[in-house]
């Protein structure tokens, strides 16, 4: 039979091809719980303002709850010819209960889908915030196992200065905490109720918007209901979807950078870590291979999350107010983004528990004395040499050592003297790595004191 939106105005139903092209129930059925939640609140309000009798409201509520149970258990039959999740549920309700025909009073699918989506994103953010915390805990655990591990820190992928592995890992904890705060911010901003906006211009019926908002938890910190302030904005606004996908894209970029660090560290060339067998895969051809595919996929999936954000922005950029069917295209980008970042977040958290630093390989890499060339500059500065000059002198020593094929601390005394006549061998004490690390006491620096403080702080915050 013809979709309910066409009855009356149309003589025939849509062609088979049109129905197939326009349907969205194959993917927007994911909104079913939010759709029913919204309908229950709307029906309660219609009863409160006298547009539904007590009996009608009771029937509608019982009917929606029965349908919810059937959807949950997989027994509900979805009909593509009924277009979307909203009409599937309403049509089935009305088939069972005459009062179902009153449920859509003062409502349009335009404000209905807007409320469903806000509820869905809100729930999704709550779940994602927890998943991110779980990943942060895994990072902190690995950092806690690695406080004694020093590795080179890199700029330009060139060895730069020594850091602790824990310090490197805690950098990602900082990024993830910023991600969480962005999602929380998005949640706060989207938490307004669009119901009562109708198709675009509200309703002439005496709807109680604040009541619905309160029912659905669209309230501010002080519990006051929040309703959208412009009906035209409310039905065409997808900013919250864009914001969610933008924050997700940045999260995905952070996860991708972490994955890339793990991939590099896991290579034979670095050899800083080993990843447990359960999180690597073999090659169909080369029997010796153990590949970090999980990390590579996390890196790769950032691409589609960024693509989803771009798709949404392009989708919106030319749309005139208010609702346009184009907006139906938002859902798959949103769902795919949410599913992808949650899967990446979860799998990385599990993988990190299977990552171990290889102390010997790390020690060998960090033993490169050039990593402490900057410390030598600082030592000269302490003796009153202007920084620019000290930088130049040590640079000359590095070049000379390279020419002679010897490590910097072994550069012969006469060579040092030729570069800087005031040289004395006590300066070479800077090349003691453990003491060099102890000297890094500034807030935010990789010295053991600071790193242990940060570790304790995160352990407490994430407990
Ligand atoms: N399935 C539609 C969407 O996702 C719901 C709103 C439809 N409204 C309309 N007037 N056709 O956007």
Automatic annotation (TrEMBL):
<feature type="domain" description="Fumarate lyase N-terminal">
    <location>
        <begin position="11"/>
        <end position="307"/>
    </location>
</feature>
<comment type="pathway">
    <text>Amino-acid biosynthesis; L-arginine biosynthesis; L-arginine from L-ornithine and carbamoyl phosphate: step 3/3.</text>
</comment>
<keyword id="KW-0456">Lyase</keyword>
<dbReference type="InterPro" id="IPR029419">
    <property type="entry name" value="Arg_succ_lyase_C"/>
</dbReference>
<keyword id="KW-0028">Amino-acid biosynthesis</keyword>
<keyword id="KW-0055">Arginine biosynthesis</keyword>
<feature type="domain" description="Argininosuccinate lyase C-terminal">
    <location>
        <begin position="371"/>
        <end position="437"/>
    </location>
</feature>
<dbReference type="InterPro" id="IPR009049">
    <property type="entry name" value="Argininosuccinate_lyase"/>
</dbReference>
<dbReference type="InterPro" id="IPR022761">
    <property type="entry name" value="Fumarate_lyase_N"/>
</dbReference>
<keyword id="KW-0963">Cytoplasm</keyword>
<dbReference type="GO" id="GO:0042450">
    <property type="term" value="P:L-arginine biosynthetic process via ornithine"/>
</dbReference>
<protein>
    <recommendedName>
        <fullName>Argininosuccinate lyase</fullName>
        <ecNumber>4.3.2.1</ecNumber>
    </recommendedName>
</protein>
<dbReference type="InterPro" id="IPR008948">
    <property type="entry name" value="L-Aspartase-like"/>
</dbReference>
<dbReference type="Pfam" id="PF00206">
    <property type="entry name" value="Lyase_1"/>
</dbReference>
<comment type="similarity">
    <text>Belongs to the lyase 1 family. Argininosuccinate lyase subfamily.</text>
</comment>
<dbReference type="GO" id="GO:0004056">
    <property type="term" value="F:argininosuccinate lyase activity"/>
</dbReference>
<dbReference type="GO" id="GO:0005829">
    <property type="term" value="C:cytosol"/>
</dbReference>
<dbReference type="Pfam" id="PF14698">
    <property type="entry name" value="ASL_C2"/>
</dbReference>
<dbReference type="InterPro" id="IPR000362">
    <property type="entry name" value="Fumarate_lyase_fam"/>
</dbReference>
<dbReference type="InterPro" id="IPR020557">
    <property type="entry name" value="Fumarate_lyase_CS"/>
</dbReference>
<dbReference type="InterPro" id="IPR024083">
    <property type="entry name" value="Fumarase/histidase_N"/>
</dbReference>
